[in-house]
Amino acid sequence: MNQGRVDACLDELDRDRAAAVRGAYLKGESYAELAVRHGVPLNTMRTWLRRSLLKLRECLER
Amino acid sequence: MTPDDNIPHEHGDNLLAAEYVLGVLEAPERRSTAGRIEAEPAFARLVDRWEVDLAPLSAAYTPVEAPASVKAGIDRRLFSSAASERIERGSLWSSLAFWRGLAAAALAAFAVAVIVPLVRTPVATPDSRYVAALSADASDVKYVAVYDRSEGEVSLAHLAGHKAADRDFELWMIDGNNAPVSMGVLPAGDTIRITLTPALKAKLAAGAVLAISLEPAGGSPTGLPTGPVVAAGDLKSI
């Protein structure tokens, strides 16, 4: 297993963005819920998360 | 997907796969994505890779977060048409749908075979028997648990999956937002019986989540799960 790898990669993201990824995965939060919790518009939340996911994938591939 | 985010188009499927695994899609998009997993092996592999890569996150949950994550995972597996067997990377054979169906049927058959003998004995009081099917994404460990409240005993049948020789499986009860409570290290064997302490018996009821984590030999040194949750399920009254 790549235990720790994904955590290390999340640590390379801004803290609140990593928190959004974790929140989505662990709590099953939807974009709408994440947007409310982080106080940003839905589209902003979606863009945030997608950019974070691309960075995460890039890091995981290294 | 919306075109607002200046993200190159070639990442579209990869992002959609990640969004699916994270569970952020709304129901209609989730359903259409589930359809693509069945129909497109290349897309299914993207989803598979995200599931494998993100799975370690569930080991890092705080006790408060655990029930939600566990439940979301279980719900995805049980109630989504895309319920997917994520046994390990590279396990995609020819037809995902076939293997998933076979695995689900096998689990159901095992559950019936195990539960029926356990529950057919006369029941003293209603609501005294509970059952939970324990499994998790990114893990091939499967157990079925039957709780007999009147006996104060949990019976576990080991269906699939093994631990490393120098590790132990530890059983936990998670009740609402409370911290997980250890029910002990699971001994080896196909059938395991655990007699509950009065304190555990008082807490264990329908709606509680049973979870199995991978721990150092002898069990968690901290009194809380330290390793990944390899299987979990809701306790249902039967």
Provide tags for this entry.
heterodimer, A: 62 residues, mainly alpha, 77% helix, 0% strand, B: 238 residues, alpha+beta, five-stranded antiparallel sheet, four-stranded antiparallel sheet
**Helix coverage percent of residues of chain B?**
25-40%
**Helix fraction of chain A?**
over 70%
State the end-to-end distance of chain B. Answer: 42 Å
Unreliable spans of chain B = 82-92
Could you characterize what this model shows?
- The complex is a heterodimer of chains A (about 60) and B (about 240).
- Chain A is an all-alpha fold.
- The longest helix of chain A has 20 residues, at about 40-60.
- Chain A has four helices and no strands.
- Chain A has helices at about 5-10, 15-25, 30-40, 40-60.
- In chain B, about 35% of the residues lie in helices and about 25% in strands.
- In chain B, the strands form two sheets. In chain B, strands 6-3-2-1-9 form a five-stranded antiparallel beta sheet, with helices on one face. Chain B has a four-stranded antiparallel beta sheet with strand order 5-4-7-8, with helices on one face.
- The relative contact order of chain B is 0.13.
- Classes of the chains: A mainly alpha (about 60), B alpha+beta (about 240).
- The interface of A and B includes residues 30 and 53 of A.
In short:
With 62 residues, chain A is mostly helical.
Q: How do the helices and strands line up, and which of them pair or pack?
A:
The complex is a heterodimer of chains A (62) and B (238).
Chain A: H1 5-11, H2 15-27, H3 31-38, H4 42-61
Helix pairs in contact in A: 1-4, 2-4, 3-4
Chain B: H1 12-22, H2 27-39, H3 41-54, H4 66-79, H5 96-119, E1 129-134, E2 142-148, E3 153-160, E4 167-174, E5 181-185, E6 191-195, H6 198-203, E7 209-216, E8 229-234, E9 236-237
Antiparallel strand pairs in B: 1-2, 1-9, 2-3, 3-6, 4-5, 4-7, 7-8
